[in-house]
Amino acid sequence: MNGAERRNEILDMIQGSDRVVSATRLAEKFSVSRQVIVQDIALIRAAGFDIISTNRGYILNEPQKSIRVFKVSHTDEQLEDELNTIVDMGGTVRDVFIWHKIYGKISGILNISSRRKVGEFMDDIRNGRSTPLMKVTGNYHYHTVEAPDEETLDLIEKALINKGYLVADE
Hints:
Layout: H1 3-16, H2 23-30, H3 34-46, E1 51-54, E2 57-60, E3 66-73, H4 79-88, E4 92-100, E5 104-112, H5 115-126, E6 140-147, H6 150-162
Antiparallel strand pairs: 1-2, 3-6, 4-5, 4-6
Helix pairs in contact: 1-3, 2-3, 4-5
């Protein structure tokens, strides 16, 4: 494993942990000295990642995102517009899910955050690589949407209401 690969794995470990990750633990995992880890952390920081050193280890300082689930319904022709509406307002469509009467919750991870990703998703739909989950439930489905703050989620909600996509939850 070269240094770049090690730094990528170190970053993945720190990002994926809900607790601090100690330099000793990292050094043992990668069979290097703690000093090498300290140097790797400096290079990761130089690449733009805000890693905080504590007396117990490293954590990534990421801004907290706001998350909201929207129940929506629309036609096939409106699918692209629905997704573009969300990403244009600053949201990321993390997933889509439905509630099936027999199988329960069925979900798919999307992580759509730009018009380019919307386009790629729509190409997969148009080319028959996939069928929208909403087909199973008569166009009703849910999206988990992530945004930088609640204000952005409020704007997304208003836009979905204005377009008639948002369904009032009983």
